[in-house]
């Protein structure tokens, strides 16, 4: 291995671009272009300022001409809206047009709880129907197949015969 590393300097050829000397003996090292980086940076600044300047002017105008809300007594019989509790006009606008109110969130939550209760109630009812059908040995229920009636009658008659012969009444009739 030490032989190969010592031969590397000998075998290395110099290219013509590295050996050329210009500008009175001073050479300029080659480097990759920064054109894409500069273009991206210029576009980013342009579009940031294109949106930032009008938004800044709008916020400044609103804060200068529309002052913060003043506290005052609430008249009798008047229920303030949720967005009227905020003093800043920008916060009021955002709350009024983009935020979901507490009352609406509460009503949605109540509706979801009601739906879950209904699903649970239906599940309990189905389980009770299956239990009653198993207990009575009945064939009709919330699902009915008329082709199975003959076999259900035969099974019921067989159950009655076996309980009579055993003298044991496990199935209520």
Structure description:
This protein is flat. The protein is mainly α. The chain is built from six helices and no strands. It has helices at 2-11, 16-19, 35-65, 89-98, 102-136, 149-166. The mean pLDDT is 81. The termini are far apart.
Overall geometric form: flat
Between the first and last Cα atoms, what is the distance in angstroms? 99 Å
Roughly what fraction of the amino acids lie in strands?
under 5%
Largest sheet: none
Q: Mean pLDDT across all residues, rounded? A: 81
Kindly summarize this structure in a few lines:
The protein has 173 residues and is mainly alpha-helical. The chain has helices spanning 2-11, 16-19, 35-65, 89-98, 102-136, 149-166.
Q: Which properties best describe this structure?
A:
173 residues; 6 helices; single chain; mainly alpha
Secondary structure topology:
Layout: H1 2-11, H2 16-19, H3 35-65, H4 89-98, H5 102-136, H6 149-166
């Amino acid at each position: 291995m030490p032989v190969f590393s010592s031969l590397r300097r000998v075998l290395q050829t110099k290219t013509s671009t590295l050996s050329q000397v210009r500008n009175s003996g001073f050479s300029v090292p080659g480097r990759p272009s920064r054109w894409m980086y500069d273009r991206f940076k210029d576009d980013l600044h342009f579009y940031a300022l294109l949106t930032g300047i009008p938004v800044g002017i709008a916020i400044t105008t609103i804060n200068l001409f529309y002052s913060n809300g003043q506290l005052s007594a609430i008249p009798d019989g008047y229920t303030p809206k949720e967005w009227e509790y905020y003093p800043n006009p920008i916060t009021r606008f955002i709350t009024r047009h983009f935020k979901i109110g507490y009352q609406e969130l509460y009503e949605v939550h109540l509706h979801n709880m009601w739906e879950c209760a209904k699903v649970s109630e239906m599940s309990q009812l189905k389980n009770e129907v299956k239990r009653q059908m198993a207990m009575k040995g009945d064939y009709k229920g919330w699902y009915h197949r008329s082709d199975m009636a003959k076999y259900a009658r035969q099974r019921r008659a067989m159950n009655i015969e076996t309980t009579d012969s055993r003298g044991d009444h496990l199935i209520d009739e």
